[in-house]
Amino acid sequence: MTVTEKPGERTEQAPSRLPPESRGTPTPQLVAGGVMILIGLLWLLERTGAVDFTVTAVLAIATMVVGISLMALARRGAHTGLIIFGTTLGLVALLTAAAPLEGFQGGVGDRLVEITTVSDIEPDYNLSMGKLTIDLTELADFQGEATLNASVGMGELIVRVPQNVGVEVAARSGAGEVEVFGQRVDGMGVDETYRSPGFEDMEDTLFLDIAVFLGRVEVTNE
């Protein structure tokens, strides 16, 4: 039987159905968002002293959450974005495990520290992101031994030392470059110890413990 439409009469149309992928928020995005919230929560708890977590531990937990989610969602598709996200988290966790720092400390930007007396040397110099330059070349009252600790999260750390002082350097880089007195090493997990020429015969000695999470470390007497 043929149904004809009369003038002025509206034909009802079946309600359109949205494709499954357009309904609601995709599961991979929910997982990624949940993991980010987890990282932020654990980091906040660690900073407030409620728990004692390292950055590596937080990233490792987040990576495991993504891995478990991928196993649970394996039958629904490949979820390439979630795989990339989990792989990135895993690589960053490995990097922080090999890195000398437990986390970023200090401010952001370029900072120049000029030290002219031994009493002005602080226990630690830290910069979260940027360039930290520590100039010791004008030390006037240096006698005996002194120690300086410095670190940069992401960026560059430069220490200038006096020429008439014996210098021992413990330099570390999670990923990047370490250059001390013209000797250069780059790569991941760099951990090197240097001594200036004639260190053993020097009466005045300076010990440097310096590190960068991601970037470059340089010690020079020029």
Describe this structure in words.
This protein has 222 residues and is α/β, with parallel strands linked by helices. Helices cover 26% and strands 36% of the residues. Strand 4 (166-180) and strand 5 (183-195) form a beta hairpin. Helix 1 (27-47) packs antiparallel against helix 2 and helix 2 packs antiparallel against helix 3 (80-98). It is elongated and about 70 Å long. The model is unreliable at 20-24 (pLDDT under 50).
How do the helices and strands line up, and which of them pair or pack?
Layout: H1 27-47, H2 55-72, H3 80-98, E1 107-114, E2 125-135, E3 145-160, E4 166-180, E5 183-195, E6 205-220
Parallel strand pairs: 1-2, 2-3, 3-6, 4-6
Antiparallel strand pairs: 4-5
| Average pLDDT level | 76
Strand order of the largest sheet: 1-2-3-6-4-5
- The ordered string of helix (H) and strand (E) elements is HHHEEEEEE
Number of strands: 6
Tally of contiguous helical segments: 3
Quick tags:
elongated, alpha/beta, 26% helix, 222 residues, 3 helices, 6-stranded mixed beta sheet
Short description:
By secondary structure, the protein is an alpha/beta fold. It has helices at residues 27-47, 55-72, 80-98; strands spanning 107-114, 125-135, 145-160, 166-180, 183-195, 205-220. Helix 2 (55-72) packs antiparallel against helix 3 (80-98).
